């Protein structure tokens, strides 16, 4: 299941803002870039609710897997975790999150991937 529209990041200005103004958290399998939300950037995308809600994007390089099926499977796993855990915990946090997966073969190890993802969420203080 994909992220709801009000939780998605989109547009090159948004990603440029995150790359310039983010705090980076590194793990073995992925890196997090967390930045304070800036709703003015989203106004150019005609968002009716350009609020300070938590938003996220997951970027998976072809270096992780050449097959789009595997990359989409990983993306769906992480998005499902976000959908089930973030609204319950704190959807009011005004942060934007960009998740970049590092090079490696971990398509078959869902538990290791989710454990690393959850550890970085705690480390970045997006969840408590």
Your description of this structure?
InterPro entries: Ribosomal_Su5_D2-typ_SF (IPR020568), Ribsml_uS5_D2-typ_fold_subgr (IPR014721), RNase_P (IPR000100). The chain is α+β, with helices and mostly antiparallel strands and 128 residues long. 40% of the residues lie in helices and 18% in strands. The two termini are 24 Å apart. The model has no long low-confidence stretch (mean pLDDT 84).
Number of domain units = 1
- Could you tell me the number of beta strands? 4
Structural class: alpha+beta
SSE string, helix = H, strand = E? Answer: HEEHEHEH
Task: Give the count of helical stretches.
Answer: 4
Mean pLDDT: 84
The top level CATH class name: Alpha Beta
Indicate the CATH architecture: 2-Layer Sandwich
| Share of β-strand residues | 15-25%
Percentage of residues assigned to helices: 25-40%
Query: Largest sheet at a glance?
Result: 4 strands, mixed
Query: Termini separation (Å)?
Result: 24 Å
Measured on Cα atoms, how large is the radius of gyration? 14 Å
Instruction: Output the strand order for the largest sheet.
Output: 1-2-4-3
Shape: globular
- Spans of 5+ residues with little confidence (pLDDT < 50)? none
Stated plainly, the CATH topology is called Ribosomal Protein S5, domain 2
